[in-house]
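User: For documentation purposes, I need each entry recorded in a consistent format: the amino acid sequence on its own, followed directly by the corresponding C-alpha cells. There are two entries in this batch. Please keep commentary to a minimum and don't merge the entries.

Assistant: Recorded as requested. Entry 1:
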Amino acid sequence: MKRFACLLLIALPLLGQEEPKNLKVLKELPKDQLLPVMVFMSNSLGVSCDHCHTAKWESDEKEAKGVARTMIVMMRDINDRHFGGEQAITCNSCHRGQIRPITTPRIANAYYNVSPAPAVPATLLPPVAQIADKYQKAAHPPAEAHGTMTRVDGVSAPFTLHEGVVKTTLEYPPEANDALKSLALNRERLAVLGVETIRGRQTYVLEQRRDRLYVDTRSGELLRWHRETATDFGQLPDETEYDGNTITWSRGDVKVTFKLE
C-alpha cells in the first residue's frame, strides 16, 4: 500500500490539484510530462517513488533525489555533446532495472553462452491480411462489462464498464482503462515481425507503429499488447495481458487486474 500511496502523492499535484513545487532540473518540462518522466525513472531503476520522495514529496530530505538531479544533468549533457541532442542515452541505458548499474560484465553474457533466438523464415510467416482476418473473428473485450479490479497492493473494488466509461471507487492510473478497449488493426501500417511463445502458446508478433501485438497463431486471440509512450526521457512501456476473463495492465509504477464476470 505504501508504494501506491506514494504514487498518488506525486500524481495528484500533477493532475491539476496544485502546481508542482521545488523543480530544479525539470523546470521547463511540460506539466503533463512530469508524471510519465517520473515513472520512466522509477521503471529504469526498479524502484518505487519513495526511493527519492518522502511524505512531503517536494522535500529534498532524501539524498537520492539530489543524485537523480545530477544524473539527469549528466544524461542531457551526454546526449547534447555526443548525439546532437538526440535521445540516445536514457536512465535505462545504464541502470536496466537496478539502482546501481552493473560495471562488471557477466560470463553468462559471453558470446559463446548466449543462444540466438531461432529465426523464423519469412516465407513461413502468413500475410498480414490472413492474421488480421483471424484476429477480427476472435473474442475481444466486451463493450459492456462488470467485475472486480485489483491493484498490485491487493486493494480491490467492483467496477462497471458502460459505453467506454469505467466506474469504480478504486484509485488507479486512467491509462489502464485502455486495456478494456477492443483494438482495431490498421493493415496498412501492420508488419509481422516473427513468432514468440506467450504463456505456452505460440503467437505471431505484429508491429503497429510503437505497439506490438501478440496474436495466438491458432485462435487469433490477442494475448499481449505492448505499448510505448514517448516521454522527454525515453519510451515509457506498458503491457496488457489477456488471459480468458482476466485482463492485467502493467506499467513501471503500478499494475491493475480486471476480473470480468
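Entry 2:
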Amino acid sequence: MTSGELLLKTIRREVDRPIPFDIEFDTSATQHYRDRFGGDPYEYFRIGYRRVYVNDLAAGADTDYRKYYDALPAEAKIGVYGDAAIYAESEAVRHFYPMERFSTARQIEEYPFPDFTRERCWIGLRERVKSFHERGLVVIGTQAEILFPRAWHLRGMAEFLIDLALHRHMAEALLDKILAAQVPIVKGLTEAGVDVVWLGMDVAMQNTTMISPSMWAAWMKPRMKTMVDAAKSVNPNVIFAIHCCGAVGPLLPHLADIGVTIINPVQPEAVNLTQVKKDFGNVFTFWGGVSVQRTMPFGTPEQVRAEVPECARILGKGGGYVCAPAHGLTHDVPWENVVAFVEAASALADSG
C-alpha cells in the first residue's frame, strides 16, 4: 500500500493501522531547513499528499485598494481581497482593514471582490492534480480564511464582532459577499479532481471560541454548508477538512452536521484529546495532536519520541488519525526534534 493509499484509507476510517504521518513547515522554517532535507520536505519525508491552490492573484479585482485606507504604510502588502498587512519573518504582525470605516451595507455590496470564476485562476490545475494522482498521491485543494477570518480581515475584528451583535445588515452583507466569492473556489477545486477540500476557518482561542457556538451556528454554519453542498454537487465523495486552531470542541457537533470529515490541527493545549476521540472518533479523522507550543520547540528529542505514540494511542484507536504536529513548524524548532518526530511517526507508519 502506497503512502497515498494509506492516507486516503485512514481519512475514510477504513483502516486503523499503520498510522500515516504529516509534517509541515512555515515559509521561514522551510528555508531554514532546506539544506537539511535538500528541498521539498514533502518529497524528503515521503508525505502521501500534495496541496494545490487556486491562483488567487488571477482573481484579483482591477482596483487600487489603497483608496480604501486613510494612510497605508508603503511596506504593507495588499492581499487579493484588498486587506493589507505588514509581515515579520513568519507571521503578519500588523493588519489593515479596508472596510473599517464603512457605515452602510451598500458600501460593502459595492466593494470590489476577487472573481474566482475567471478561467485564468484555474490554468494548469487539473493537470497538476492528475500528475499527483498518477504518482499515487492524495491531492488536497486548500483555501485559507473562509467566512469568519476573511470577514474580520476586511472589516476589522472589533467592527465585525459589533456587526454580528448589533448591525445585522452589515454582517449579512459582508458574509454573503464572501460566500459568493468563495463558493466558486470549492467548486473549482472539486472539478479539478482533488480528493480533499481543506478550508481554514480559525475562530477559536486557547480556551474558548471567539464567538459563541450559537452565534457561529447562526451565522457561519449555513454558509459553510452552502460551500460543502456546492462541492458535493460536483463530487459527492469529496472530503472536507477544517483547519481551526484553538478550542474548537464546541463547534464539532455543527461541523459533523454539515459533512466535515477531517479536523486539524487538534491542538492539545486547547482540545482534550481523549474526550474528542471518545465523542467524535466515529465521525472525524483527527490530523495533528503533537504539541507545537511545548514539545516540538522546547522539549527534548526523548519527549518528542514519547508524545508521538501517546497521541497515536489516544487518537488512533479504531482508526481515523493522521499523526502530525499541531501546526506548521517554525524555524526555531530544533532539528533534533524534527528528526525525533519523523523517526517516531515513521515507526507508526511502518507498523501494520
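Summary note for entry 2:
The domain at 3-63+102-350 is CATH 3.20.20.210 (TIM Barrel).
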